[in-house]
Design a protein that fits this description.
globular, TIM Barrel, 8-stranded parallel β-barrel, 252 residues, single chain, binds phosphoenolpyruvate, 11 helices, alpha/beta
Length: 252
C-alpha cells in the first residue's frame, strides 16, 4: 500500500506574515501525522523561512516550479540546486496555469522532470484536460500523451521518484470537482500507462494524485477510490483547518 501524498499548492498567495501563520496552524493540527506524506508549496520567496519552521514537523517542502539549467544567464529562474538549498524535497511541474499562462509545453515539462531527477528532487507532474477536450471525449488521449511526454527518457527505478497529479483544468479553482468515478477512470488509465512504460516493481510505487477543487467535503469519497493515492490542493490549502482535515481524510 502506497503512503498517500497530500500536497498544498499555495500559488501566488500569502505574504510572509500570512504564510508563517498558516504554517504554524498546520504544525499544530498535524502533530504526529505519519500515515500520510504532507507537502506544502509556498511561493519561492518564503521557502527558506518556512523550511526552518517545519524542520521538526511531518510537513515537507515543495517548489511550485523550477528551471532545468544548472546555473547561468536565465533571469528570473530558479535551479534545482537552489531549491535543494532551501530544504525543498519536491517540485510541482507542468501545472495547467504554467502551461496556459506561461506557455509551458510537454517538452519543457520533460526537461524539468529530467533536471529534478538529475539533481535530486522529486517531481509532481500535473496533467489534465480542458472542458472542451472532455466534451469531445479525448480526456484519456490527452492525459496519457502528457504523462508519456513527461516521463520520456526516465529510466527504470527513477520513475519511483514521481507523483503524477491528474488535474482536470475545468475543476481547478472552480468549485466543480470531478466525481470520484470520473477521477478514478483517468487515474486507472494513467496507472495502466505507467505499468506499460516501466517494470511493475517500479511502476507500482508511482503515486497518482487528484487535484481540482479538493475540499474537506469531497476528499473522503475521492480517497476511497483504489487508484487515487492522494491530492494536490489549491484554494483549500490556504486554510489550516481545511488542509488539515483533508490530510486526515477518512475514505468512505
Ligand atoms: C491546483 O491549482 O493545483 C488546484 C487543484 O487548485 P484548487 O484546489 O483551488 O482547485
Amino acid at each position: 500500500m502506497l503512503t498517500p501524498l497530500i500536497a498544498g499548492n499555495w500559488k501566488m498567495n500569502t505574504t510572509l506574515h500570512e504564510g508563517v501563520e498558516l504554517v504554524m496552524g498546520l504544525r499544530e493540527r498535524l502533530k504526529g501525522v505519519d500515515s500520510v506524506e504532507v507537502v506544502i508549496a509556498p511561493p519561492f520567496t518564503m521557502l527558506q523561512h518556512i523550511s526552518h519552521l517545519i524542520a521538526d514537523s511531518p510537513i515537507k517542502l515543495a517548489a511550485q516550479n523550477v528551471f532545468w539549467e544548472k546555473k547561468g544567464a536565465y533571469t528570473g529562474e530558479v535551479s534545482v540546486e537552489m531549491l535543494k538549498d532551501t530544504g525543498c524535497k519536491y517540485a510541482i511541474i507542468g501545472h495547467s496555469e504554467r502551461r496556459e499562462i506561461f506557455k509551458e509545453t510537454d517538452e519543457t515539462v520533460n526537461k524539468k522532470a529530467m533536471a529534478l531527477l538529475r539533481d535530486g528532487l522529486k517531481p509532481i507532474v500535473c496533467v489534465g484536460e480542458t472542458l472542451a477536450e472532455r466534451e469531445q471525449g479525448v480526456t484519456l488521449k490527452k492525459v496519457k500523451a502528457q504523462v508519456k511526454a513527461a516521463l520520456s527518457g526516465v529510466s527504470g527505478g527513477a520513475v519511483r521518484e514521481f507523483a503524477v497529479a491528474y488535474e482536470p483544468i475545468w475543476a481547478i479553482g472552480t468549485g466543480k470537482n470531478a466525481t470520484s468515478a470520473e477521477a478514478e477512470e483517468v487515474h486507472g488509465a494513467i496507472r495502466e500507462l505507467i505499468f506499460e512504460m516501466f517494470d511493475a516493481e517500479f511502476a507500482k510505487e508511482v503515486r497518482v494524485i487528484y487535484g481540482g477543487s479538493v475540499k474537506p467535503d469531497n476528499i473522503d469519497s475521492l480517497m476511497a477510490e483504489p487508484n487515487i493515492d492522494g491530492a494536490l490542493v489549491g484554494g483549500a490549502s490556504l486554510k489550516a483547518a481545511d488542509f488539515a482535515r483533508i490530510v486526515m481524510f477518512q475514505p468512505v
